[in-house]
Specification:
The protein has 8 helices and 11 strands. By secondary structure, it is α+β, with helices and mostly antiparallel strands. The strands form 3 sheets. The protein has a 5-stranded mixed beta sheet. Strands 3-4-8-9 form a 4-stranded antiparallel beta sheet, with no helix packed on it.
């Protein structure tokens, strides 16, 4: 597609009401156009930004007074309530899939790893933002320890919350998986992660919108494709058609 036509298409899409975009995206030819636009946006973002370009970080006095919860705010299963009552002492995170060395890590194991603390801005697709301090090990450290195979193209995040009868999950490509600011956060503003924000573990994918930051993390899986995962689009909201897979900011 010539550059001038592409810019015209994207400008027109940006001016559409959200409902109109949703309805248009459901049609065949328009769906193809939206897919092409998403691919172009993702490609342009990757080309213009260094593979290691960092999201902005902030000073402690710039933190927001409260970090609101969004989506699932409380998990009512007996298993989760028992874990929460015990301070998540027995919570486990698995790393599996296309790896040579599958892992099962406790909260103590995760805290024993080198930690990264970063103050970043959370941008929600619904239009609100907040600045907070997040701490936890880099995802890349776990992937290196698990020895991810070269045929893996994506990292899938499995979660303990269930929406509309379906387990929540999300995913990123290997560029964001190995980005230095991609961490498995267990602390928010110097304290254990609250339940409304995804306790005991949540992802921080700092160069993407908030719905990519999976909460209540239970498992990490290296995969070659999404073909055999639910509807094959790489995430809960993506599968039901609400949001695109790539949410770069």
């Amino acid at each position: 597609m010539p550059d001038i036509k592409r810019r015209t298409l994207l400008a027109g899409m940006a001016a559409m009401p959200a409902a109109a975009c949703s309805e248009l995206a459901e049609t065949g030819p328009a769906g193809d156009i939206f897919d092409a636009a998403e691919d172009w946006h993702r490609s342009a973002h990757r080309t213009l930004a260094s593979r290691q370009a960092l999201a902005p970080e902030y000073a402690p006095d710039e933190r927001s007074p409260d970090i609101r919860g969004n989506g699932t705010l409380k998990i009512e299963t007996a298993e989760y309530r028992e874990h929460k009552a015990s301070g998540f002492a027995d919570w486990q995170l698995s790393v599996s899939g296309l790896v040579d060395n599958p892992l099962t890590l406790s909260m103590a194991d995760l805290r024993a790893l080198p930690q990264r603390t970063q103050i970043t801005r959370h941008d929600c697709v619904e239009g609100w933002s907040a600045i907070a301090e997040w701490s936890g090990p880099q995802l890349s450290a776990l992937l290196d320890k698990a020895k991810v195979r070269k045929e893996a193209n994506f990292i899938v995040f499995r979660c303990a919350d269930v929406l509309y009868g379906r387990d929540y999950y999300e995913s990123v490509d290997m560029v964001d998986a190995y980005h230095p600011q991609t961490i498995i956060a267990h602390e928010l503003n110097g304290a254990p992660l609250p339940e409304k924000n995804g306790a005991p573990l949540r992802m921080r994918i700092e160069r993407q919108l908030g719905y990519k930051h999976a909460k209540y993390l239970t498992a990490i899986e290296a995969v070659a494709s999404f073909e055999d995962i639910y509807d094959g689009k790489g995430g809960f909201w993506e599968d039901i058609g609400d949001y695109q897979w790539y949410a770069g900011i």
